[in-house]
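Extended Data, panel c. Modelled sequence:
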Amino acid sequence: MYLGAGNGDINTIIGGIAPDWGPFATLGAEARTMVQVVMAVAILLCLAIAIWGAAKQRIGATALRDTFSAEQGKGLIVAGLTGVFIIGSLGTLFTIIYGMAI
């Protein structure tokens, strides 16, 4: 029997926000933990912005019949989810850029 993810663990999934690659490999454990905390807080902030945008769009479109509020909510959703994607991709981006510099 062949398992596709037989040797994987949770670190494989969340490795994008745990910087132990490239230029962050030389940092100490405390500095690496601080970078992880900052990245996790930034992801939570972006998700909060996306949730706020969804609420603003829903309330503006239905209860208030305010099209400007609904459009502003769409913008917040896009901005929040884009921020989550960019922060989640930082591991790949830094590895590529750092590898090209060496």
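The chain has a mean pLDDT of 77. This feature is highlighted in the accompanying rendering.
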